[in-house]
Write a structure and sequence with these properties.
Strand content: 5-15%
Strand order of the largest sheet: 1-2
Oligomer: single chain
Distance between the termini: 65 Å
Shape: flat
Structural class: mainly alpha
Order of helices and strands: HHHHHHEE
CATH superfamily: Nickel-containing superoxide dismutase
Largest sheet: 2 strands, antiparallel
Helix content: 55-70%
Number of helices: 6
CATH architecture: Up-down Bundle
Length: 161
Protein backbone atom coordinates (compact mmCIF):
# COMPACT_ATOMS: atom_id res chain seq x y z
CA UNK A 1 0.00 0.00 0.00
CA UNK A 2 2.87 2.41 0.83
CA UNK A 3 4.42 1.82 -2.61
CA UNK A 4 1.12 2.58 -4.32
CA UNK A 5 0.65 5.75 -2.28
CA UNK A 6 4.23 6.87 -3.00
CA UNK A 7 3.68 6.25 -6.72
CA UNK A 8 0.45 8.25 -6.72
CA UNK A 9 2.09 11.15 -4.84
CA UNK A 10 5.08 11.29 -7.23
CA UNK A 11 3.55 13.93 -9.56
CA UNK A 12 2.93 16.15 -6.53
CA UNK A 13 6.53 16.23 -5.33
CA UNK A 14 8.37 19.48 -5.79
CA UNK A 15 11.54 19.58 -7.84
CA UNK A 16 13.40 22.86 -7.93
CA UNK A 17 15.37 23.75 -11.04
CA UNK A 18 17.89 26.57 -11.07
CA UNK A 19 18.92 28.27 -14.29
CA UNK A 20 19.41 31.67 -15.83
CA UNK A 21 16.41 30.84 -17.95
CA UNK A 22 17.45 28.26 -20.59
CA UNK A 23 14.93 29.57 -23.11
CA UNK A 24 17.51 30.94 -24.34
CA UNK A 25 16.52 34.54 -23.78
CA UNK A 26 19.66 36.16 -25.17
CA UNK A 27 20.09 38.35 -22.09
CA UNK A 28 23.66 37.96 -20.90
CA UNK A 29 25.90 40.57 -19.34
CA UNK A 30 29.28 40.37 -17.57
CA UNK A 31 28.33 43.20 -15.19
CA UNK A 32 27.33 40.93 -12.27
CA UNK A 33 30.52 38.93 -12.77
CA UNK A 34 32.62 42.08 -12.41
CA UNK A 35 30.64 43.41 -9.44
CA UNK A 36 31.12 40.07 -7.67
CA UNK A 37 34.87 40.23 -8.41
CA UNK A 38 35.09 43.77 -7.02
CA UNK A 39 33.22 42.62 -3.90
CA UNK A 40 35.60 39.68 -3.39
CA UNK A 41 38.51 42.10 -3.65
CA UNK A 42 36.89 44.59 -1.27
CA UNK A 43 36.06 41.97 1.35
CA UNK A 44 39.67 40.77 1.19
CA UNK A 45 40.88 44.34 1.68
CA UNK A 46 38.56 44.76 4.67
CA UNK A 47 39.79 41.51 6.25
CA UNK A 48 43.39 42.65 5.85
CA UNK A 49 42.62 46.07 7.36
CA UNK A 50 40.74 44.79 10.44
CA UNK A 51 41.97 46.21 13.73
CA UNK A 52 42.18 43.98 16.78
CA UNK A 53 40.89 46.57 19.25
CA UNK A 54 37.93 44.55 20.50
CA UNK A 55 38.06 40.76 20.16
CA UNK A 56 34.28 40.32 20.14
CA UNK A 57 33.75 42.99 17.48
CA UNK A 58 36.62 41.63 15.41
CA UNK A 59 35.21 38.09 15.49
CA UNK A 60 31.83 39.46 14.44
CA UNK A 61 33.35 41.52 11.61
CA UNK A 62 35.41 38.58 10.36
CA UNK A 63 32.29 36.40 10.26
CA UNK A 64 30.23 39.00 8.40
CA UNK A 65 32.92 39.95 5.90
CA UNK A 66 33.82 36.31 5.23
CA UNK A 67 30.13 35.49 4.68
CA UNK A 68 29.80 38.26 2.08
CA UNK A 69 33.03 37.16 0.38
CA UNK A 70 31.72 33.56 0.26
CA UNK A 71 28.39 34.70 -1.21
CA UNK A 72 30.11 36.67 -3.94
CA UNK A 73 32.48 33.87 -4.86
CA UNK A 74 29.35 31.73 -5.29
CA UNK A 75 27.72 34.44 -7.40
CA UNK A 76 30.86 34.78 -9.50
CA UNK A 77 30.92 31.01 -10.08
CA UNK A 78 27.24 31.06 -11.08
CA UNK A 79 27.79 33.92 -13.54
CA UNK A 80 30.84 32.18 -15.00
CA UNK A 81 28.82 29.00 -15.46
CA UNK A 82 26.06 30.87 -17.28
CA UNK A 83 28.49 32.67 -19.58
CA UNK A 84 30.61 29.60 -20.25
CA UNK A 85 27.81 27.11 -20.76
CA UNK A 86 24.97 29.22 -22.14
CA UNK A 87 26.43 32.25 -23.87
CA UNK A 88 29.86 31.37 -25.25
CA UNK A 89 29.66 28.94 -28.15
CA UNK A 90 32.33 26.79 -29.80
CA UNK A 91 33.11 29.52 -32.34
CA UNK A 92 33.92 31.92 -29.49
CA UNK A 93 36.40 29.47 -27.98
CA UNK A 94 38.01 29.08 -31.41
CA UNK A 95 38.16 32.83 -32.04
CA UNK A 96 39.53 33.48 -28.53
CA UNK A 97 41.82 30.54 -27.77
CA UNK A 98 42.67 31.85 -24.28
CA UNK A 99 39.00 32.00 -23.23
CA UNK A 100 38.79 28.48 -21.83
CA UNK A 101 42.04 29.01 -19.91
CA UNK A 102 40.64 32.29 -18.51
CA UNK A 103 37.63 30.43 -17.13
CA UNK A 104 39.86 27.77 -15.58
CA UNK A 105 42.24 30.31 -14.03
CA UNK A 106 39.53 32.60 -12.65
CA UNK A 107 37.86 29.63 -10.96
CA UNK A 108 41.17 28.56 -9.39
CA UNK A 109 41.88 32.11 -8.25
CA UNK A 110 38.34 32.45 -6.87
CA UNK A 111 38.83 29.25 -4.91
CA UNK A 112 42.10 30.56 -3.49
CA UNK A 113 40.47 33.92 -2.66
CA UNK A 114 37.67 32.02 -0.89
CA UNK A 115 40.00 29.82 1.15
CA UNK A 116 42.51 32.49 2.13
CA UNK A 117 42.88 36.18 2.84
CA UNK A 118 44.83 36.57 -0.37
CA UNK A 119 44.89 40.01 -2.00
CA UNK A 120 46.82 38.76 -5.03
CA UNK A 121 44.25 36.04 -5.77
CA UNK A 122 41.36 38.46 -5.31
CA UNK A 123 43.02 40.96 -7.66
CA UNK A 124 43.55 38.22 -10.24
CA UNK A 125 39.85 37.32 -10.04
CA UNK A 126 38.96 40.90 -10.93
CA UNK A 127 41.55 41.07 -13.71
CA UNK A 128 40.29 37.87 -15.31
CA UNK A 129 36.64 38.92 -14.94
CA UNK A 130 37.52 42.08 -16.86
CA UNK A 131 39.27 40.08 -19.59
CA UNK A 132 36.21 37.85 -19.94
CA UNK A 133 33.99 40.95 -20.12
CA UNK A 134 36.16 42.40 -22.90
CA UNK A 135 35.90 39.18 -24.90
CA UNK A 136 32.14 39.08 -24.27
CA UNK A 137 31.68 42.56 -25.75
CA UNK A 138 33.90 41.73 -28.72
CA UNK A 139 31.62 38.77 -29.51
CA UNK A 140 28.71 41.23 -29.45
CA UNK A 141 30.53 43.43 -31.98
CA UNK A 142 30.63 46.41 -29.66
CA UNK A 143 33.64 48.25 -28.37
CA UNK A 144 34.68 47.32 -24.83
CA UNK A 145 35.89 50.22 -22.72
CA UNK A 146 37.47 50.26 -19.29
CA UNK A 147 36.16 53.01 -17.07
CA UNK A 148 37.14 53.99 -13.57
CA UNK A 149 34.86 52.23 -11.13
CA UNK A 150 33.15 54.13 -8.34
CA UNK A 151 33.85 51.27 -5.94
CA UNK A 152 36.18 51.56 -2.93
CA UNK A 153 38.41 48.98 -4.61
CA UNK A 154 39.40 51.59 -7.15
CA UNK A 155 40.28 50.03 -10.43
CA UNK A 156 38.06 49.72 -13.43
CA UNK A 157 34.96 48.10 -14.79
CA UNK A 158 34.54 47.00 -18.40
CA UNK A 159 31.51 48.39 -20.22
CA UNK A 160 30.67 48.90 -23.87
CA UNK A 161 30.19 51.96 -26.05
Amino acid sequence: MNKLLSFLMLPLTENIAYAHCDIPCGIYDPYVLQRAAHTILRMTQLLIDLKNENAKKMAHDIARITHVKEEHVGLLEEELETLRNDYFKEEHFVAYPNLNELFTKILKDASKARQEINLEAASEVLSKAQEIAEIFYKTKNVEAVRVKSVYPTGGEIVLHK
